[in-house]
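hiii, so i know i said id send this last week but things got crazy w the move. better late than never?? heres the sequnce for the chain we talked about at the cafe, plus the structure i predicted for it. fair warning i was half asleep when i ran it
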Amino acid sequence: MRIRIYILLIFIITLFFNCRASCQEFKTGNEVLIDSLHLLRGKNIGIITNSTGITTRGNHFVSELVYNNINIRRIFTPEHGFNIDDKYDTFFSEIETVSLYGDSKNIGGKYLKDIDILIFDIQDLGVRFYTYTSTLYLTMKDAAKYGKKFIICDRPSIADLNYTGGYLLDKNYSSFIGMIPVPVIYGMTAGELGIYLKENTDPDLRNLDLLVMKMQGYTRSADFNDLNLKWINPSPNIRSTEAGRLYSALCFLEGTNISEGRGTGNPFTLIGAPFCNSSDIINELKKYEMEGIEFEPAEFIPESSSAYSNPKFKGKICYGVKIILKNYKKFSPFKLSLAILISLKNLNHEFKWINKNFIDKLAGTDRLRNNINKGMTVDEILNDCNEELQDFNFKKEKILLYPKQ
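okay and structure toks below
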């Protein structure tokens, strides 16, 4: 009897501590840093951020640091700038703001000479060609070059962290929209990506004084929509988590003469052109039996807006498809991108690669374009990526910060 009671007590105690761990209050990396302000006291701080750098309390990270008398010398902004709400103007008006999307994408030495610590706090999409990944990489290199401490405030991914897809970057196709040697969809948080870059890329980063402020109460299976975190558009045409998740598949259309929905109220959820036929596209895409998504016929007219001034087919009726994301954890973005590109090319003789094969910069290689031109199937192209993906995933597993459940 005593043995049974002893076993029962052990079970209850184990269950209690497991519950405490799994039910731990969620905190973003910037909130964890706010709880550890001794790391910043008496230091001159530079922050790389934009409007997405908020806490679960709905406050911007910069405003919370200013309120706590942390000395912020400079704010560095990525592509699309700061775009911060007017209510924060009193916090930011006296802080110098420097764009990292001008002639130089690096932080020059003149802006770092009076900085002790650089902090990175930006919501990303988990996609290599979203330029915030390049900004992370370049500013890490700047910190290493000038001997500055670099802190990444980790944030939850909107992507499925258990999925990777696409070709790894071929350095011959490196550009600001594809600079880091990872697959198109890399399955890591910003903090994990920072560690990966330090450990596996530029030798100059090996000596970087890097600190990742891990999130509290976060797992790799967490859904961004279930966390107590307000959605802030990370760029003008990513207006929802759904669009952000579909972006990893539909952005490849920027290398074609097919609209990706820019100039409409639903960018990166629509595809089409005046010469397309909705039913033909849907019938073709359904052959691939992709999980997690559904297709609806769509008609739309792209127009100029503050978010995009010159969309494809401005003022013309486009016929195509609206893609509805039903379950992002069953969704295979790279497979969808291949299915769309191959289907559109096979269905429409008007289909073209545009802007000097811009698709190669998005894919990080010319293999995607060449394989599609050669008539390779979706499965054949996926297999072509597979070996390098396996090698990447092996390296990635060594640096992950969060459990799967």
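btw The CA atoms of residues 21 and 212 lie 20 Å apart. thought thatd interest u
miss u guys!!
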